[in-house]
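Justification of resources, computational component.

The compute hours requested in this renewal are based largely on the per-chain cost of generating structure records like the one below. Each record pairs the submitted sequence with a full structure-token output. That output is archived, and it is also reused by downstream analysis tasks.
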Amino acid sequence: MPYRAPVSDISFCLENVVGFDRVQGTELFAEASTDLVQAMLTEAGRICEEVIAPLNRDGDLHPAKLENGVVRTSPGFAEGYRALAEAGFTGISADPEYGGLGLPHTVTTAVNEMIGSACLSLQLNPLMTQGQIEALEHHATDEIKALYLPKLTSGEWCGTMNLTEPQAGSDVGALTTKAEPKGDGTYAISGQKIYISWGDNDFAENIVHLVLARLPDAPAGTKGISLFLVPKKLPDADGNPGVANDLKVVSLEHKMGLHGSPTCVMQYDGATGWLIGAENKGMAAMFTMMNNARLGVGVQGLSIAEAAYQHALAYALDRKQGRTGGGTGMIVDHADVRRMLMEMKAETFAARALCLDLAVSIDLAKTGDDQAAARAAFLTPIAKAYGTETGIKVANTGIQVHGGMGFIEETGAAQFARDVRVTAIYEGTNGIQAMDLAGRKLMDGGDAAFALLDEIAATESDFADTIRPMVDALRKTTEDMLARDMADRFGGAVPFLMAYARVLGAHYHAKAAASGDATRKALAQFFITRLLPEAQALMAQARCGTDGLYDLSPDDLAA
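The structure output for this chain reads:
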């Protein structure tokens, strides 16, 4: 089935659910008029439907490969990338001083959803560059900005992030890559990095790596990590790509999915790099972009949910099997198939609203709104985890809707499940997101959590009497979490996070129903009647903490 960009659904969410008009009303984003945003979304939708979506299957069947040290990308990816770059979709929110459009991150989020639905493997490329642009805008010197930001913003050059090492995954502080001062303001970077998305390609003029490394005599752990910019080709006096730097792609990972996205093992052998930010403050530089990066991955889950839902719906409307209540014989009229489709649609809407809600808070925080900043920080782990879990769930359900044909690769249903699975792992596993929510995000004594719950409870809707008791229960569960030590919180962190996702989902659906649209109200009724009750069970699990988790020893587990 051809992908249909959900421009109208996104626009509805912006106007009726997440309050995007508050962003448009600020001085910083005054130029982001409704007409301009609608034009951006419409053009992005057109390119995604006509240019990017046709590449998705070829990227899966004809993966990127390494030939004589050069990454050869999947058929059509170069042309698809250029279409996105020429339309300005890499630099939607980038600083206009360096060629960006300076539009709200909410617009970038909406556009990235459509690109990810069309072809997630390709979407990873501009997403990496967007993260690097943000890091450089906040922490690079004026000279670095002037040289690199115009090229990255235009899409002429691509950016990557190099954090993980074979022995240092989630424990970033264990990394060993070295940075030796060369005496001329540059550094020699040596070490190996793994899981580097789009570590190389054959269509960009240059690849710019941001690499975490240690200076000599740096403190142990995360306090001794610095951030360095290391280009594949060293710019010459005119700023053009010059001689090759001392780095290479060692190999490409053979992965479960995302075959069109080259995941590289990178080797640095005294490569020339430039310090970004202060010495030993590399993690601070990375955390600058963490809200946006984790939101970006949550959106990837949403992207696949939307694509998988459209794919399953088209099949259900076409496939005849058995007798149905509607008399058509199409499987869409079977009660269980209808249940699955309704659940897919309801979860996808909730994930989209959550991601856009977080994006709005991020934009308001840029205007100096401290309450919005606290709200964004609290919503970030929820959006990342729920967005990706929704993608996995909806893709898996899509296979089920297809029945036996879902297990057959030709239908394309399985690709969605394979491509989305990693999103729950990278940019901080969903377990780490939950620990962040139950730990760091409650270090304010629960102020941000309670402010969010107050906001939900104060929202009037036809479903308020059903939602408010859940809000009260979640408030008590949050109070219970605050009274526990950290280890006990972590034992119930995942269900704690998902309880928030369920209550937020009901909140967004209720706001959508308040628009008066009968379809929105029916979908809200489904979510609030059938899915919101799961929050009670999740809260009960959260309150268990670590009870029972360690009752079996490692030997018992192996018995």
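The longest helix spans residues 370-402. Residues 31-286 form a domain with the Butyryl-CoA Dehydrogenase, subunit A; domain 2 fold (CATH 2.40.110.20).
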